[in-house]
Specification:
By secondary structure, the protein is α/β, with parallel strands linked by helices. The chain is built from 30 helices and 15 strands. It folds into four domains: about 1-105, Orthogonal Bundle (Arc Repressor Mutant, subunit A); about 110-295, Tex N-terminal region-like; about 315-435, YqgF/RNase H-like domain (Nucleotidyltransferase, domain 5), CATH 3.30.420.140; about 630-745, Nucleic acid-binding proteins (OB fold (Dihydrolipoamide Acetyltransferase, E2P), Beta Barrel), CATH 2.40.50.
């Protein structure tokens, strides 16, 4: 374990003590949010990202240990485990090295080399492999044996070469040398499969494509792999063959004679038949894992921004799930999100009952004192928004809400339990309204994969994706804190230490006994012991509690410390929370101890300044450009307000209110070079964009966030001709921009 601790410490550039202490806390059942928030003195103030990295790396190293144990046991059972081999396996620091060492001893199917050994040709292979001046043909003659199906010298030599080829393919040094070559000079190539021209248009950028695998971005690799998986593309990864053979020749071809020529033939066969397929498979897995990691990181960051989007807060809401033929589903919610009434109106074609719909909505706004109107951003969204803004007599602001995943929620078991007597359309409208009240509380009810803020989420490793997204949800929920008396079972289940079973028990206890009066009362919940209480208490909030600290992020284990601060100032706890001048008199140095250091004390003082504060930003109203409702309304050169709906490695997608998100390519995100889009934009960010391209047949909109030094008169854009060969999006945008500059100069 000490070796692992040293390895993790070096990798993350932190001390071994930090790693050791963090692993101990994790092994004892502490959660990442709890450790990051309440055990800063123990870990040296490591943040959630670092703690998660320690957890994940420790898991990988423990899996490596398990594999080593399995390999050692297998070789030992064969009676072939030497002290030197055991030492090499135990010291191997990667799974690839362990597998290379195991390869000669790994049980195999019946190979060409196996058959040659059965014909007693291994001694001949050894003689040839020594590359003496002896004639291989003469060396082969004693091995001719019709009973063993060795009738000619060529058959004997072929068998010897098969054995030599296997020796070369199992040589650890050769594999490591070629592995480095594959990583450095490997070229990924894709081609369109015959007969797929008509159906593979979505992969046409990769019909004839090649680039260094070391430089291929994750989104492009995943796109190519999807094309291969769906049967449209062939995909290969390999370095130039002459480079690979040259590396092997330097290691294995020792002389220039007829035996060396036999080794050369075996070497070429070994590379083409054994080494190349094996190392290509290995590199495919390696690059896929890397691409998965990057894609999951992008998805997780997008999800974080969406979950931490500003809440409107407790307001009476009228929410509409817009539509044409089936009408707009309408629900009224109180300030806690409780459904009060629902109906359907038909303000849009084909029925277009505008007066009747306006009267109904006006009446509902008055009846329930509606303070905000939420409209889903799906079909008929802009038309419904315009109708409500112009026809409904209400002072409440009209706000378009991202409804991605609402249909998933409405058909889920969670929604059925919540509204067993309501159909899915009503449930969907409720979800839209609640998202406006509190995005986090509502979105945790939906599988994160269904929220629509990832890239190639269905192509990445699903277990890794689940873990990454769950980490993000847990982090966000505990960052904000949860009102234990109003939170849903789903929201409570993400609180540090609780989980689905205890969350259900908490809701059941609350329903039976009423609201929890204080944090201590939470201990009365069935199966919620001291350890769980320790992990969860600081993240649970109780409004109107007698002890104001119960509605703060101050952990109960530090209540005594805060009371001591108040006593030392000859004041009450309530005075300490209400009076800034009192808090300024606190000298935190005098409260440090072995358990409590300055990091925790500073956190406590910050919390006393604003107890129970919501860390999310304040809600701001947003409106799309009036008169721009469909793609046909867009013109090249238009400057429009928009909201970022998704961020990928190649750019950001922006909703400008036309039912089709536009793409701001990474090259157009800023006036300076951008390597990582997440460094300059985030999901739900409000931006100003310029329209570069409108391709209606392909439903593509090209946008830019650059500040152009020239004015672009609005002109209708024309669809681009179909490209037969790939041209990078960056070059395409750059060329178009230059054409526009020349045109309007």
């Amino acid at each position: 374990m000490a070796t692992h601790i040293n390895h993790i410490a070096q990798t993350l550039n932190i001390s071994t003590r930090q790693v050791s202490q963090t692993l101990q806390l994790l092994d004892e059942g502490a959660t990442v949010p709890f450790i990051a928030r309440y055990r800063k003195e123990v870990t040296g103030s490591l943040d959630e990202v670092q703690i998660t990295q320690i957890r994940d790396q420790a898991h990988q190293l423990r899996e490596l240990d398990k594999r080593k144990e399995s390999v050692l046991k297998s070789i030992e059972e064969q009676g072939k485990l030497s002290d030197d081999l055991q030492k090499q396996i135990e010291e191997a620091d990667t799974m690839a090295k362990v597998e290379d060492l195991y390869l000669p001893y790994k049980p195999k199917r019946r190979t060409k080399a196996t058959i040659a050994r059965e014909r007693d040709l291994e001694p001949l292979a050894q003689q040839i492999f020594e590359q003496t001046s002896a004639d291989p043909t003469q060396l082969a003659e004693p091995f001719l044996d019709p009973e063993k199906e060795v009738n000619t010298t060529e058959e004997a030599l072929q068998g010897a070469r098969d054995i030599i080829a296997e020796w070369i393919s199992e040589d650890q040094q050769a594999r490591e040398t070629l592995r480095k070559l594959f990583r450095k000079e490997g070229v990924i190539k894709t081609k369109l499969l015959k007969g797929k021209e008509a159906d593979g248009h979505k992969f046409r950028d990769y019909f004839e494509w090649e680039e260094l695998v070391a430089k291929v971005p994750s989104h492009r690799l995943l796109a190519m792999r999807r094309g291969e998986k769906e049967g449209f593309l062939s995909l290969t990864i390999a370095p130039p063959e002459e480079s690979a053979l040259s590396q092997l020749e330097r290691q294995f071809v020792k002389n220039n004679n007829t035996s060396s020529q036999q080794v050369q033939l075996a070497l070429t066969d070994s590379y083409k038949r054994l080494l190349r397929p094996s190392l290509e498979t290995e590199l495919r897995l390696e690059t896929k894992k890397k691409a998965d990691t990057e894609a999951i990181e992008v998805f997780s960051e997008n999800l974080r921004q969406l979950l931490l989007a500003p809440p409107l807060g407790e307001k009476n809401i009228l929410a509409l799930d817009p539509g044409f033929r089936t009408g707009c589903k309408v629900v009224c919610l109180d300030r806690q999100g409780k459904l009060l009434e629902h109906t359907t109106v038909y303000p849009n074609p084909p029925q277009k009952k505008m007066q009747e719909s306006a009267a109904t909505l006006t009446h509902l706004c008055e009846k329930y004192q509606v303070e905000a109107i939420a409209i889903g951003n799906g079909t008929a969204s802009r038309e419904t928004e315009q109708f409500v803004s112009s026809q409904v007599k209400a002072s409440a602001p009209v706000i378009v809400v991202n409804e991605s995943g609402a249909s998933i929620y409405s058909a889920s078991e969670v929604a059925r339990e919540e509204f067993p007597d309501k159909d899915i359309t009503v449930r969907g409208a409720v979800s839209i309204g609640r998202r406006l009240l509190d995005p986090l509380a509502e979105l945790v009810k939906i599988d994160p994969k269904s929220i629509g803020v990832g890239q190639y989420q269905h192509d990445v490793d699903q277990s890794s994706l689940k873990q990454g997204l769950e980490d993000t949800v847990v982090s966000c929920v505990n960052k904000v804190g949860v009102d234990v008396n109003t939170a849903s079972q789903q929201l409570l289940s993400y609180v540090s230490g609780i989980g689905p079973v205890l969350a259900k028990n908490m809701v059941s206890y609350r329903d039976e006994h009423g609201a929890f009066p204080n944090r201590d009362a939470i201990k009365k919940v069935s199966r919620l012991g001291d350890k769980v209480f320790e992990q969860a208490a600081g993240f649970l909030r109780i409004r109107e509690a007698k002890n104001p600290l119960d509605n703060s992020a101050v952990h109960p284990e530090r209540y005594g410390l805060v009371r001591q601060m108040a006593r030392d100032l000859n004041s009450q706890l309530e005075d300490l929370l209400q009076k800034t001048e009192l808090r300024k008199q606190i000298n935190i140095q005098q409260y440090t101890s072995e358990e409590v250091g300055l990091p925790t004390l500073k956190d406590i003082l910050e919390e006393l300044d604003k107890p129970g504060r919501d860390p999310r930003e304040s809600f701001e109203l947003f409106q799309f450009q009036e008169g721009v409702n469909t793609m046909e309304d867009l013109q090249v050169g238009m400057k429009l307000p928009g909201i970022i709906t998704n961020v990928t490695n190649f750019g950001a997608f922006v909703d400008v209110g036309v039912h089709q998100d536009g793409l701001v390519h990474i090259s157009n995100l800023a006036d300076h070079f951008v390597k990582d889009p997440t460094q300059v934009v985030k999901v739900q960010q409000k931006v100003q964009v310029t329209v570069l391209e409108v391709d209606i047949p392909r439903k593509r909109i090209g946008l830019s966030m650059k500040q152009y030094p020239f004015a672009m008169p609005p002109t209708k854009s024309k669809p681009k001709p179909r490209r037969e060969t790939r041209k990078s999006d960056e070059s395409s945008m750059a060329d178009q921009l230059q054409q526009l500059k020349n045109k309007f100069r």
